[in-house]
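Hey, can you fold this one?
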Amino acid sequence: MGARALPPLLAAAVAALVMMAAAAVEDATPDNVQPLSTLKMEAARVAMDAAAVIHASPDVLGKNGEDSGWVTVNFTAPAPSSDHWVALFSPADFSLSVGDSPTTNAAGEDGPAGLPQAPIKYMFANISPSFMSSGSGNMSFLVINQRSDYAFGLFSGGKDNPKLIAVSNKISFANPKAPVSPRLSQGKEWNEMAVTWTSGYNISEAYPFVEWRMKGEESPKRTPAGTLTYTRRHLCGKPANAEGYRDPGFIHTAFLKDLWPNREYSYQIAHKLPDGTVVRGKSSTFRASPFPGQDSVQRIVVFGDMGIGPSDGSNELAGFQPGAKVTTNRLIKDLPNYDAVFHIGDLSYANGFLAQWDQFAAQIEPIASKVPYMVASGNHERTYQDTGGFYNGNDSRGECGVPAETYFYVPAANRGKFWYAADYGMFRFCVGDTEHDWRPGSEQHAFLDGCFAAADRKHQPWLVFAAHRPLGYSSNDFYAAEGTFSEPMGRALQALWQRHRVDLAIYGHVHNYERTCPVYESTCTDGRKAKDDDKGGSGSSSSYSGTVGGTIHVVAGTGGAKLRGYAAGAWPQWSVARDESYGYVKLTAESHATLRVEFIHSDDGAAHDAFTISRDYKDVLACTVDSCAPHTLAS
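Sure. Predicted structure:
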């Protein structure tokens, strides 16, 4: 007896439940728990102890224009235990709303519960070797300029019952409002570079601009910048609009236009005060993009799911994003060997603790100030219930896309809908937003159809789709458990990939590396058959030539978040390479005829998987299954 079709409303409800279940499985994993959320600040009490002391030095940072500095914290606590911890707060008066001292009433009870804000970072006191035996210790925190003053709090009671027993002296930067964290991205035209940065200056206080020049020119140009910010009322829920909220300052973007292809430029972010004084930030350099279709070697890095890797060991992030620091360091070291970055979602993993966005911008600044740092929207940036997204989870913890869409410029028509096109020489990138509907009939589906169609393949032969969630193929364990091997309904784009002969589809979200054969409808199209003795089903081919016939799908959610395994049992026949390691994908267009793809390990910088595609323009035009429009046999 044949299966009956579900009524439309019931089918839609079932589909929604499947997506919610998928989001819940991913979101419930321990590696997605922001450590700051484990501090029960709503239960915190101010219980100052005269025997507890904490002091920070130096009290002024950035005297020579630095935007970060190391602070030594010395502390003493009576009855030392493993439940004591030290946290950095900003602004420095974080404890005032629950009183200073005394904090006990006539009955000897503690004062009112609840601190109004979460810290920026924290460490347990027993990290200091002498603390448990002597009650005194010291530790070092790396502090960045976040537009306000700071103080450290010493707590007892662990995470579950925190008691603030001492507050340090205040520390600050010489100019808390100084411009910091320049980050580049391509503008809406190939010869346009967007420069974005953060400061404490509103437009009424100082006028933001970029001073820049082409190498060899004597006179610099000045380009004004626009200014954006957001408030609690822009945010959608807790903790982002509650204890996790922190004033983001002001985010400025200037557009440097009419750049000459491949020429080197220098630039400096700055603000002009009403009295004519100019406050300058860091200066840096970049190389302009090649002309679309230009025949020169072009190298692009792609990965997802990085997070923050603090140099001071704070926040227990070694367990949350254990690979973020090593990947960042590798990308910094490898800067001379690539031209642009695509970070395809799950950027900072702030998860509603908004001070982390400044921390992330500071972390990637050595990279993003030199090469375009293009981003995509992930579930930890956008997903929040009842806010118009495709999924109804709570992965962003109230952010609902606001910080990511403000901190980073992308050349989208609407930054609330994070899909866009980017041309870089022989590459065309069509970047999708998997947190919004991508299915046929949707606004995004129409955009992607047009984006793929606009590529002139004789000049831009390498067509890449990039998005956060795997809409194609992944043998990750939670997809296997659902029986989909992809995001539910993800392959609704498969007809577009095939019709437009998309070469590569690259995803994050799943914290491992995997690549497929050229595949269409779960079948390898390169003519190779599964072998009984071949662990990878179709084998781990290192080269494809001629008419490939399908899209190669690559999962690269390996930027730093805790790694995940694969489904048990035999590999699907389309899965040809796997690697449970931190790293990034590197695309090298060697010519119009040859593309090399490598998976670079973050620890050693070596390529641990690689393949090439070699073909002529005629091979791109050739018809394969479902790739050509109807045509006549008439001559």
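Confidence is low (pLDDT under 50) at residues 1-28, 97-111, 529-539. Let me know if you want another pass with a different chain boundary.
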